[in-house]
Amino acid sequence: MSKISRKISNIVNNESYSDELKIKKISHTLSNKHPADISDVIEDLDSDSRQIFFKLTPKLVDSRVLVNLVNPYRTKTIAFFGLDHFKNSINLLKKDELIELVEQLNVKDRKQFVEMMPKKLKDIVKFLMAYPENSVGRNMSFDFILISENFSVEETLKYIKEKKDTPDSCSEIFIEDDDHKLTGLISLTRLLKANKKKKLKDIESPDIVEIAATDDQEIAYNLFNKYHFVRLPVVDNNNHMIGLIRSADLIDIAQEEITEDFSQLTGTSENDEINAPLISSCFNRLRWLSLTVINTLLSPFIISLFQDTIKQTVALAVLMPIAGALGGNIGIQTASVVIKAFSTEEFREAQYSKVIKKETLMGVFNGLMIGLMLGAAVLFWFNDIKLSSLLFGTMVFCATWASFIGVALPITFYHFGYDSSLSSGPLITTITDVSGYIAFLGLAHIFLS
């Protein structure tokens, strides 16, 4: 609990204070605090203290606070106040905050919340929500100036000056032709320095990179990384400019993409948050854990096929877990590097064979080094050269195979249009564990029979 939250908790639970005094002290403590700070207080308070806080200072809990709350606290806050409570503060939200809040409401509340909005704001939200969830269209803004290429510099400056809804910060003007197709742009500095009689089409820069509204937001992220743009024009299917996406939006986009890849890599869900409801979290993880169940069923089955071999040398049972553990770690290590390369567009199809070869050779090298260390340890422990050689051979195979799987699976998934991070986590662990046991016990059958 933060210092502010602790102070608020002490105020609301102080029985010697009257309600009026509590309100005064809470208002003084939270004056000039960011809505996100008030959200933190709500999340930190226990259930009873939160109820008292809501009753005493309802005006402090507006739409800006609501959008910063995580579930289940957002749901509990809406349940206490009702959505009508937030109607008058909707205009205080930025466009991206508004979209984020609408997305996170349940279907019933979402419909009511949208209907509460002023018509202009409602139209914008409905327009943006029509695009897929992770598309560029969901993240675009309308803070741009688009002018015909037939305007003169003088006409353009007059238009900008007289236009009522001119963006507060605008460093360039976008240019369109008679068919309303985006043709280029011109910086505000260059516009101010140009001859007033010149047409925009004569001084515009045609070297413009645009992005389609239906493109995945990860494409925008990669374009910003590649070209170091400040903003990108967003176009529809007819190359008509309909919005703008800014580099500032990258923070949220990058966080979403990292969260998505990390979730796939660790075998969890993007919706599996620390504060998510118990049942929801259980089902989110169950689909991934089912792969682990397959692994736990396959591994004993493989081991049971070599019961006679294991009975001959009890040391095999002691050393067997090493075979499964090493492969999984190496496979996930390799997959993480490859998935990161795909996410940042550092990886091209022409490099596939080169990278597979490199990672596989790395697996051979690591297998040799680890095999020598473990083989020496087993020789010292059991004084058995065959057992030492067995473990050495198993480590070389497991490391090489795991490295190959770690690079080949993400490439295969990506090649067929799937998210490369889906190939990691439980899937790689299952493959490497089972193959590790087969290699270890198979070699044991050959070496020790």
Describe this structure in words.
This protein has 449 residues and is mainly α. It has 3 domains: 3-133, MgtE N-terminal domain-like (MgtE N-terminal fold, Alpha Horseshoe), CATH 1.25.60.10; 146-248, CBS-domain; 278-448, SLC41 divalent cation transporters, integral membrane domain (Tetracycline Repressor, domain 2, Orthogonal Bundle). 64% of the residues lie in helices and 6% in strands. A 3-stranded mixed beta sheet has the order 1-2-3. A hairpin with a 5-residue loop joins strand 2 (172-176) and strand 3 (182-187). Helix 18 (315-343) runs antiparallel to helix 21. The chain is flat. The relative contact order is 0.07.
SSE topology sketch:
Layout: H1 3-12, H2 19-30, H3 35-44, H4 47-56, H5 63-68, H6 73-81, H7 95-104, H8 107-116, H9 119-129, H10 136-139, E1 146-148, H11 153-162, E2 172-176, E3 182-187, H12 188-193, H13 200-203, E4 211-212, H14 217-227, E5 231-235, E6 241-246, H15 250-266, H16 278-304, H17 307-312, H18 315-343, H19 352-382, H20 385-415, H21 426-448
Parallel strand pairs: 1-2, 4-5
Antiparallel strand pairs: 2-3, 5-6
